[in-house]
Amino acid sequence: MATRKKAAVPPPPPPPPRTLFEKIWDSHVVHRQDDGTCVIYIDRHLVHEVTSPQAFEGLRMAHRPVRRPEATIALADHNTPTTDLSLGIPDEESRIQVETLEKNVAEFGVPYFGLQDPRRGIVHVTGPEQGFTLPGTTIVCGDSHTSTHGAFGALAFGIGTSEVEHVLATQTLIQKPAKNMRVAVEGSLPLGVTAKDVILAIIAKLGTAGGTGYVIEYAGRAIREMTMEGRMTVCNMSIEAGARAGLIAPDETTFQYLFGRPNAPKGGAWDLALGQWRRLPSDKGAHFDAQIDLNASDIPPMVTWGTSPQDALPITDVVPDPANAPDEARREAWTRSLAYMGLTPGTKLVDVPVDRVFIGSCTNGRIEDLRAAAEIVKGRKVASTVSAMVVPGSGLVKAEAEKEGLDKIFLEAGFEWRIQGCSMCLAMNADRLEPGQRCASTSNRNFEGRQGRGGRTHLLSPAMAAAAAIKGTLADVRDFQ
Amino acid sequence: MEKFTTLRGVAAPMPMVNIDTDMIIPKNFLKTIKRTGLKDGLFYELRWTADGQKKDFVLDQPAYQNAKIIVAGPNFGCGSSREHAPWALLDFGIRCVISESFADIFYNNCFKNGILPIKVPKEIIDKLMDDASRGSNAVIEVDLEKQEIKGPDGGTVHFDIDPFRKHCLLNGLDDIGLTMEKKPEIDDFETRQKESQPWLYAAE
Ligand code: SF4
Known about the structure:
Protein name (chain A): 3-isopropylmalate dehydratase large subunit
Function (chain A): Catalyzes the isomerization between 2-isopropylmalate and 3-isopropylmalate, via the formation of 2-isopropylmaleate.
Strand content of chain A: 15-25%
Oligomer: heterodimer
Bound molecules: iron/sulfur cluster
Shape of chain B: globular
Structural class of chain B: alpha/beta
Largest sheet of chain A: 5 strands, parallel
Distance between the termini of chain B: 34 Å
EC number (chain A): 4.2.1.33
Largest interface: A-B, 80 and 59 residues
InterPro entries (chain A): 3-IsopropMal_deHydase_lsu, Acnase/IPM_dHydase_lsu_aba_1/3, Acoase/IPM_deHydtase_lsu_aba, Aconitase_4Fe-4S_BS, Aconitase_4Fe-4S_dom, IPM_dehydratase_rel_enz, IPMI_cat
CATH superfamily of the largest domain in chain B: Aconitase, domain 4
Number of strands of chain A: 19
Pathway (chain A): Amino-acid biosynthesis; L-leucine biosynthesis; L-leucine from 3-methyl-2-oxobutanoate: step 2/4
Strand content of chain B: 15-25%
């Protein structure tokens, strides 16, 4: 047989550029149906007391075990008292819910941080703190603010209770990929402007449904210059723009934060992980279905005036007039919001008096948030008309703040210093607004009744909340610096 | 899960935009450890005043007390992931919500509970909202197989839906059961991942 010269094999075409989201997605597909529906693998699962009882009950009824208990952490955060834990939980229904969780984790062998465990905190504070949240992983929780963990370059999203059961049983979910949106914040943030102001400005621009169907990747210099705490604040509120998840490419800031955390890789595994994590950022030329650009220098300190997180304005602005709403639907929504909020169009936002101040939540209950608030509070006093409280996001945040003497600063100024938990972010425990009370709050939702029936919520940054506590009205933090 | 094939019932109009899950079922009803019995909490703060008086909310008006369908303003179900929202709707007897748009998690949760969320364009919503405002005459028919909504005056409109979700709803299929059949693939995935990312398995 005549020998034939082998044709030169052409080099394989370079793989198409992919986004961070696509890389994580592709590496977690277990099974893909022809219609694009996928079974995707879930690396990490956070479980809390409110959205899990029916999921465990479902497992029990079907005689199914938890597939990977060690990929799961459970704790109670929503219902827990913030004043005194030695008495247990006085509210009967709350107590039953927490006891149910304790029974379930014992029966199914799921790791659990008990009520008195200092690692216990709001799930979205505890997960990152423990190094449970890692770049390139998929993370879910029966909680919409799971988007927080996207700050580490992890694909993290909230799920319903049926899906909690699905993950417990199979360690997977049935999903279709989301679309990609890139939100770039270029330039550096001006003095007094924080991650919270950035995300409020983004939501105001996108609208509360603008992100529906998308995973948002935040990029640009202002985002890169943020600490992990700031990035978590940004990703946390992605859901308030309707997005499925928020993402930020992991970088040195991420790696530094993670190094040495209890669940982070150690030794040789750390180096191996770093090598993989460095390949995660979106490739040059990757396709985004939508792109939004903001300039950091245009973002002032922000505050919400209405009952949707998109109702955010610069603190220097006035309460808007429904007559100027862009369309009929919004005119109706604004009118309803203003009636609920008890506000008159044209009133300067800095003239709006507040009754309560809440510093805490999975958006702004981390150490850096407490430091920022303490800096404003130091040497000043809470206005006599205001009742103000600080609720750390976890026991470890609380301990760190106490080590730094922040608790003293808050207490001397007249703040209450509480035990960690969700607290007045959603008022499932005893911490809530009375009807008509107005609150400057560092949480993430200003919906009707969110902080207590009839309660009126203004969302803002920790430093802005501190300024409001001292002035007794909404205030421009730049006047305090 | 109960199958969804066809549904005929009164449709209640709720034109408000951004009806969030805190509104659909307020937090004080989230302390339950069951899926059932949540109808009393459905739209609680819209239905009751703080001192326990009825507010004449649409679902309490005689014409709509047995509503099976809601025609809603855009971005229905935004906010919290609580599945208590579809549980409460279901407990009241609502099996279908029609809107211009839904929040992702709520939309997903509906399918897990035999509720059909239908997305249609604004012109159709405007028409259905009109129809729904006719009180007990606002009987709407939904046929999932044919993907059709029939209004009280007989006109029909088509709606789109993901074929896989449609299949699951029509047959009342249990997601977990379906995924369990993929066990070998999940096992394989874990074996590969354990090799390439052993730190994700360090605790085991
Ligand atoms: S702090 Fe608020 S938003 Fe965050 S998990 Fe708790 S209740 Fe949800």
